[in-house]
Amino acid sequence: MDSPGVAYHNSDPYFTVFKIPYWRAVLYKFLSVTFWGSLPSTIQRRVSALYGGIYNKPFTKYIIAPYVRYYYSDPNYLDKFLPPKGKSDFDSFQDFFIRRFKKLPINSNPRVWPCEGLLCDLGNVLELGTSRVKSDLRTMETIFGVKKGKIPSSYCFTNIFLHNKNYHRIHAPISGTITRIQHVPGDLIILRPWIYKQNPSLPAFRNERYNIDITDDKGRVWYLSVVGGPAVGTIKLSKLIQVGNSVEKLDELALFLLGSTCCMAAPEKPKHHCKNTFVEVGTTY
Q1: Which residue in 12, 23, 57, 188 has the fewest CB atoms around it within 10 Å?
Q2: Which residues on neighbouring strands pair with residue 247, listed in sequence order?
Q3: Domains: count for the chain
């Protein structure tokens, strides 16, 4: 159970699963995968950097207040957070994206969700099978950068899509030891899962990502993949995130600049959440 005083939500009235017409989903997928995805990665990054750079401009700080009012019913929502880099105020909209908790959530359960967002994909690693990326047929292990069969077939796969409004830092879901860190170069196709219909995790198979393995006290590996998307200039790992280092539950692992997705292959299934529900940092996994 979650500790007293910790808000528990399995839905978000301000973030529903978008139901768009099939023809529109096909069009968006074509633009994202066939058109944008076929461009050289250097061009994708240049365009993304130009777009993302806008949100670092000082004038964008005036977007924050109306944006928060639109997405959050709590008028004091921002009071839970601090600006990044020791700043005393949010100087740009990018600062809002990478806001920090004043106090991390408290939960006595040893396994928690590492981030906040829409649980857009959920299932057994073996049952979810494969995905065709360009001319290759890739298994779920492709996302985490390991050989086929490395992840036990009984493991549970989850994919959390972080909307622009969501908190954009990734935390350790358990206490343990970091046993692998891997950077996988890739594309920056659109992450929004509702345009991929039956394959919401398609971007995770081909986008740039950092894979982080954490081994728990039972010797089980928890596989995390921090996946970037368009306008992501950088995925920044925390300074203490190095192979061989110990991490405590809810230690910060990484942060995103703009959009993102976080995938996880875990030896246990979530206790309270199902596909297309909302998860929050620090609530019971």
Answers
A1: 23
A2: 176
A3: 1
Give the domain range for residue 225.
22-38+109-279
SS (H, E, C) 103-125: CCCCCCCCCECCCCEEEEEEEEH
Q: Consecutive sets of 10 residues in the chain, 285 residues long: mean pLDDT of each?
A: 40 56 86 88 84 88 93 88 93 91 94 94 84 70 93 94 89 97 89 84 90 97 92 76 96 82 95 90 95
Q: What angle do CA 110, 124, 136 make, to 5 degrees?
A: 125
> Per the domain annotation, does 75 fall within a domain?
no
Which residue from 37, 36, 169, 45 is spatially nearest to 98, judged by alpha carbons? 169
For residue 100, being part of any structural domain is answered with no
